[in-house]
Amino acid sequence: MLKIDVNLDILEKCISQIDAMKSGWCKKSRPSKVGAGRTVTEMELLADCYEDLYNSILKLTDNTIEYFRNLKNSYEELDKNTSIG
After folding, report:
1. How far is it, in rounded angstroms, from Cα 75 to Cα 41?
2. What is the CA radius of gyration of the chain?
3. What Å distances lie between residue 64 and 15, 18, 51, 68, 78, CA to CA?
4. CB of 68 within 8 A of CB of 15?
5. Which pLDDT value is given to residue 30?
6. 34 Cβ contact list (under 8 Å, min separation 6)
7. Which of 17-21, 58-62, 63-67, 77-81 has the lowest mean pLDDT?
8. d(Cα 56, Cα 43) in Å, to the nearest integer?
9. What pTM did the predictor assign?
10. By CB count within 10 A, which of 28, 36, 39, 58 is most buried?
């Protein structure tokens, strides 16, 4: 059986780096709608797309952090159980 070699210190460091990077992102508030017409409507649609994209990236980043934390915990638990049993 092959051994899976995971450096948990590096994994924790990378998790922390991703989390720190994410915490540096600041959501910009949308400017109030001024004017009317097709250009304003198109700009509002574009702003909606950017807002959706921003929220999706945040969710993806949160899920990535959670995945790697669970992976790290799983390896630590497996290592603990292996050393006991």
Report:
1. 51
2. 21
3. 9, 9, 20, 6, 21
4. yes
5. 78
6. 40
7. 77-81
8. 20
9. 0.74
10. 58
How far is Cα 40 from Cα 57, in angstroms, rounded to an integer? 26
Please, which residues have CB within 8 angstroms of residue 58's CB and are 6 or more apart in sequence? 22, 25
Query: CA angle 61-16-7, nearest 5°?
Result: 105
Mark out the alpha helices in the chain (DSSP H runs). 8-23, 38-84
Q: What is the Cα–Cα distance from 15 to 63, expressed in whole angstroms?
A: 11
Tokens of 19: 């989390």
User: Contact at 8 Å (CB) between 75 and 8?
Assistant: yes
φ/ψ of 34, rounded to 5, equals -125, 125
Q: Amino acid letter at 29?
A: S
More confident residue, 12 or 1: 12
